[in-house]
Amino acid sequence: MGDPILEEPAGQDPPTPPPPVDPPPPHSRHTVWIWMLVAAAVLGYFAVRHYRWRNTGQASRAGAPGGVVVNAAKARRGSIGVYLDAIGTVTPVYTASIIAQANGIVTAVHYQEGQIVKKGDPLIDIDPRFYQAQVLQAQGVLDRDTAVLAQSRMDLARFRDAWARNAIPRQTLEDQEKLVLQNEGLVKSDQGALQFATVQLSYCHITAPIDGRAGLRLVDPGNVVTANQVNQVTGTTSLVVITQIQPITVIFTIAQDDLSAVRAQMRQRALPAYAYDRTAQTRIAAGTLEAVDNQIDTTTGTVKLRATFANTNDALFPNQFVNVRLLVKTLTNVTLVPSGAIQHNGPIAFVYAIVDGVAEMRTVKAGAADSGKTVVQGLTPGTLVATSSFERLQDKTRVMISTKPVAPTSESKAP
Fold it and tell me: Are residue 157 and residue 193 in the same domain, yes or no?
């Protein structure tokens, strides 16, 4: 028997079959699963990282087993200097700018550039022949008038003898007395002319007026110089400049608020002053405060001071800029701690005192500082204070003291 044939009812269309649905491609399902696994891995990584960071930070701040490793130092009792820091300029005590005082040709230059000269050493010679002739002429006039004066005095002696014998009238005697006075005045005038010519001649031989260092050569042999005028080579009035370098001074300024303390200490002793290089790290020379200016600069509210330095090693050079430290006074029997141990929270200063392996925050009052030490009040000498690992310290944190330097952690380096 065959399959029965179903016949559609009369008058109705046959139903339309639904369109076939394509199954999803296999690779799309795989991509979705891969992305879900990647997202889960990333979330898990950050969760573990956050958990470790949180536990590590809490353990460090609360005092992990064994404690936070720190360096420490003891507060000690000692002395420290109170300094005023300023910027100064090296200034010679004497600076001689020598100019020509005679006209003529330069015949010799005796100094070398940068040479150390002594007072009286020859520097420059100018042709002296013209002035030698003037001296000779003045000497001749003086000799002649001196002889005339001697003759008039002899005549006066004869007239007085004759007057004693009533051999001449009194008018003749008086005239001779006045003639002697005239000749004496003429001789004095001749003596002055001779001295003037001698001085002019001395200007032809220029010597060093002070001990110091000569500058660069400004004239050469053969140059013509004119008294008190610009020379033809450099366009300046100076033939040579000499500056004294031993001793030498430094001029610097301080605030007017510090002036009273400085003057009070100056009445008791000489205040030491120290010159440092541009970086303020290397001491160049040591000296003493010499003088204070007589008025305050109203535009800046500062006052100038001058310190003197022996400069035996020639370390200070004229017009050099230096950093000056003026020792005003010395504090004795005070409590000192390393400056790095002091921490600040706004205007409040504090240290971490280590007692029985526990860091205790103690408020202190910081004072003068020098050479890495700071004066503090509110701390007993002998107290152990932390000098490192402040980024992990809190009040009551357990610590371990290390003798090796403790490097800062990445947490402290982070901005």
Answer: yes
Residue 190 pLDDT greater than 60, yes or no: yes
**Number of domains forming the structure of the chain:** 3
Residue 284: name the closest of 307, 247, 305, 309 by CA: 309
Domain assignment of residue 326, yes or no: yes
Give the 3-state secondary structure of 138-166.
HHHHHHHHHHHHHHHHHHHHHHHHHHHCC
Residues 360 and 307 in one domain: no
Burial class (CB in 10 A: 0-12, 13-18, 19+), 400: middle
Residues 353 and 370 reside in one and the same domain? yes
Question: Is residue 91 exposed (0-12), middle (13-18) or buried (19+ Cβ within 10 Å)?
Answer: middle
Cα torsion 400, 405, 411, 415: sign: positive
Indicate if 250 and 297 belong to the same structural domain.
yes
Asked if the structure places residue 105 within a domain, the reply is: no
Which of these three, 184, 203, 222, is where a domain ends? 203
* Burial letters 227-259, b for 16+ CB under 10 A, else e: eeeebeeeeebbbbbbbbbbebbbbbbbeeeeb
Based on the fold, state whether residues 258 and 322 are members of the same structural domain: yes
User: Any idea which residue has 């002319």 for tokens?
Assistant: 193
Q: Give the pairing of strands 76-92 and 205-207.
A: unpaired
CA–CA dist 267, 262 (Å, integer): 9
Asked if omega into 247 is within 30° of 0 (cis), the reply is yes
Please list, residue by residue across 267-304, b when 16 or more beta carbons sit within 10 angstroms of its beta carbon and e when fewer do.
eeeebbbbbbeeeeeeebbebebbeeeeeeeeeeebbb
Q: What pLDDT does 118 receive?
A: 95
For residue 74, pLDDT over 60 is answered with yes
pTM of the model: 0.65
Please give the structure tokens belonging to residue 331: 């504090």
One domain, residues 138 and 172: yes
Q: What is the pLDDT of residue 389?
A: 87
- Which residues have C-beta within 8 Å of that of residue 335, sequence separation ≥ 6? 75, 76, 77, 375, 376, 377, 379, 380, 381
User: Is residue 139 located within the same domain as residue 193?
Assistant: yes
Of the residues 280, 305, 330, the one at which a domain ends: 330
List phi, psi (to 5°) of 71: -95, 150
